[in-house]
Design goal:
Length: 218
């Protein structure tokens, strides 16, 4: 009996979520094809623009009162990601913080968030106002991102820091050529800035490594 009741409740919950999702999907400022979102997440719909083939994961919190949150194409979120555009002013004397207003167009205190294409954001990561996440980046689970993330960087920690690049710069160039037309690829200057970050060690096949060690021991 308990299993039957559970199935009935689950079916009703799925139907409710599907209906709610259809009802609110058009409230996003913009959305591309292949967009998937949890209707039980928290969104300030009118300030959020989403590209093609995007999955916002389970129960995200994506909010910006007046600034914009822009999410590119081919982006995936883990569960419970938070993206927070805008901020509260804390510099005014004699006024409770909750009562401090912001002037329209006050970009210094009400900055948005921009997430590039082909980004993966891990479980419960937090991205705060003013952050730009470069194309191809990976945000580690639980990271608190307070500064720009370079393209193809893997960041982690609180506050988040670059751990390394996903690939060496030469591989990034090949990846860009495979996916993007010339006008949309990273520029020479942008690629040059990535050279300062650590690249992953090249993977060595265990059998090849064993043969190399054996040759060195002879």
């Amino acid at each position: 009996m308990a299993r039957l009741v559970d199935r009935v409740v689950a079916t009703g919950s799925r139907a409710r979520r599907a209906i709610h999702g259809l009802a609110v999907a058009d409230r996003f400022r913009g959305r591309g094809d292949g967009f998937v979102f949890d209707p039980d997440g928290v969104y300030t719909y009118e300030t959020i623009e989403v590209g093609r083939n995007v999955d916002l994961g389970y129960r995200p919190v994506i909010m910006a009162a007046r600034s914009r949150i822009r999410i590119g194409d081919n982006v995936m979120f883990g569960p419970e990601v938070t993206i927070r555009g805008g901020n509260h002013r804390v510099d005014q004397v004699g006024v409770p913080m909750i009562a401090v207003g912001k002037d329209p167009g006050d970009e210094e205190h009400d900055r948005g968030v921009a997430i590039g294409d082909d980004v993966w954001i891990g479980t419960r990561a937090i991205i705060l106002h003013g952050v730009t996440v470069g194309r191809g980046a990976v945000i580690g689970a639980g990271a608190v991102v307070t500064r720009p993330v370079p393209p193809y960087a893997i960041v982690a920690g609180s506050p988040a820091r670059v751990v390394r690049l996903r690939w060496p710069v030469e591989t990034i160039v090949a990846h860009e050529r495979a996916l993007y037309p010339p006008a949309q690829r990273l520029t020479v200057a942008e690629l040059a800035t990535l050279a300062e970050f650590a690249a992953p060690e090249p993977r060595v096949d265990p059998a090849t490594k064993a043969l190399t060690v054996a040759a060195q021991e002879r």
